[in-house]
Sequence to fold (746 residues):
Amino acid sequence: MSKTRRDFIKISSLSAAGIFAGAKYLQSAIPGNATKLGEIGNLNLNRTPTYCEVCFWKCAGWVHKNEDGTIKKITGNDDDPNCNGRLCPRGTGGIGMYYDEDRLKTPLMRVTGKDGKQTYREASWDEALDFIAKRMKEIKEKHGAECTALLTHGSGGHYFGSLIKAFGSGNVAAPSYAQCRGPREVAFLATFGEGLNSPEPTDIRDTRCLVLIGSHLGENMHNGQVQEMSDAIDKGATIITVDPRFSTVASKSKFWLPIKPATDIALLLSWMHEIINNGWYDKKYIEKYAYGFEELKDYIQPFTPEWAYGITTIKPDQIRETAREMANAAPAVIIHPGRHVTWYGDDTQRVRAMAILNALLGSWGRRGGFYIPDITSVPKYPHPHFPEPARDWRDAMGGKYKLADLALASGVCDATIPTPDLDCHIKAWIVNGTNLIMTLPDQRKTLDAINSLELMVVIDTMPAEITGYADVVLPECTYLERWDDLRILQGRFPTISLRMPAAQPKYNSKPGYWIAKELAKKMGLGEYFAWNTFEEKLDWELKQVNSSLEEMKKIGVKKLTREYDDIYFNDGEDIEFNTNTGKIELYSTALEEEGFDPMPRYTPHQEPPEGFYHLNYGRAPMHTFSRTTNNPNLADLMDENVVWVNPKVAKEWGLENGQEVYLENQDGIISDFKIKVRVTERIRFDSVYMIHGFGHTNKKLTRTYGKGASDSQLITRVLTDPIMGGTGMRGNFVTFRFEKESEAQS
Ligand code: MGD
Ligand code: SF4
Fold:
């Protein structure tokens, strides 16, 4: 009898639990030629394996070296399904992170007040770590360990996560959830009983129709996905792009639907209307697997294409034609769930509508739709159980966001700002690899939270804006100079890959694992980091999955066998989904139980005031968030952002291409710096568009300081998703300003 999806879920969790329960805290044998902790061993290899840290697609590659041991170039690993041997422009430019002369060079301790001005003195590692350990212990005694938090993005989260959990806090949050993909995880969990994770299991290479709703693959360069999309286009797949902006992928699409911002749910409902009422849905699939079809059918009756036209500005015949196109391709069709989906606060419901549409077309678990991903569990080097924290950030939320399956970075921020009715506020943050000033919306709130802290430690490679507010700044070496935990990824096959140092850490920087272990020792938590060298830890873990450090140094990436045999559902197979009803829930019982709409509802959003435009933002293929704009190689490709303005709007304002303007938002916030105008038909008349991550205010980022404007600064109106607490950022409007008051007076 074949295993069901439910079996698979049980088996995966059982095997992981079994391994951990059986593993005692132990110290295993140390491999022969171990190196001193924090240093690296023999670097005679002319190419060393790595996986990229420039974005979180984590392509595996090789670092090639010059004869003198310096780094020459980075190339992709042919055996890696995430990149198939080809890195994207950012990945190739990762080398610039290593050579950037603006890097943090040594530990720094604050000299003056918390003013963002980066006034520090240099300190030794010993002094800086002693200070942190002492302050953390004081905070624990005064407030409890649960009043501390880790905000993190990237590999270091493993080590600092273990540190803070060992200390007694469960507050570990990454912006990649509540500021990015959280709503889609909750929406897919509510519908199919499973989230999507990364890389998302979209079977793009075999799809016949890919629908991209505000997800600009190609600009948002997630390598393997983009390669698959290009192959699918070559094989004749249809692309339907729904975007107020003519994005790069819109230019490759059979249909571009330039939707009015904030109205996507209306379009999705009318597509359901067409697909159900014309009988284009997958009847057998829905009958066997779905719950709530009749309710959905009744519910969508008012949502005709004519109704949607009035809201979305997309013509009814285009809605009908695109619905037909999807149905013709089904089940090899993907309504792509997107990645950064925190837009208007009704985001879980919007992605729910996308999930339902996928279900109606029968694409979940089907070739060319969504495949069934497999992930392997690699046992972790043993450590004692973490203590149970007394409370966490949720206690400050008044019972909200119960459906959030991960911690919210914005929730930690909220729980840090004192209120009269809460006895434990968060008093200390460890911030690793996340530039919160440019990452969390509403900078005033982030600064309020920071000003309420008794301690903030920032671990970064660069003097990012966030380092300006830290009490202690710890310089991490770049990913090219360090060991890191194994990359363990889901996919058509699960894979593991190795990152090893290709060069000694520059300056006085150190790897994250070293910083965490040294801090742990000073905080009396050394037993949680019981390995002597990182190589020893990796080798122990690799041996649990029949590999070894020696093997991985040679191959870099290893495919493991699937735990669950089938990559797609078999025809007519019995499947129990991990939802309350055991079915794909078109009608969500989980959302209903929590008092939310069980089926997605369209609610109108605020229109821009007179003379203002929707602030739309996105990505460029050569940059990732704010982390790459100072990178010399990538700044060469793009060193500032521009604001896209429709010709009609440009005419009204008398704007010309290349003219520099300030942007001012609906709350009177004016961009710190001017931004150049690009007049283009590629954006609707009610919106402007800019690339996220520019407009840096820290002068120590010499290459990127003052270049372009920051979308983050202008995002002060946050539309919070009531279901999971995601911070919707697209409800802001901007207008143009030619000078600031201070300039007018001078
Ligand atoms: P960055 O701004 O790039 O992104 O949020 P973040 O991950 O905070 O900041 C990353 C920081 O990590 C930089 O300071 C960089 O120097 C540092 N860093 C890089 N490599 C390393 C390393 O190896 N070790 C350490 N310790 N530090 C390192 C991203 C988040 O932002 C996400 S996931 C999304 S999807 C959202 N996108 C988004 C948006 O599009 N617009 C706006 N306005 N806000 C957004 N916020 C969210
Ligand atoms: Fe690196 Fe590009 Fe892959 Fe992201 S997509 S991990 S930046 S090579």
About this structure: The radius of gyration is 26 Å. The mean pLDDT is 92. The chain is about 30% helix and 15% strand. The longest strand covers residues 60-65.
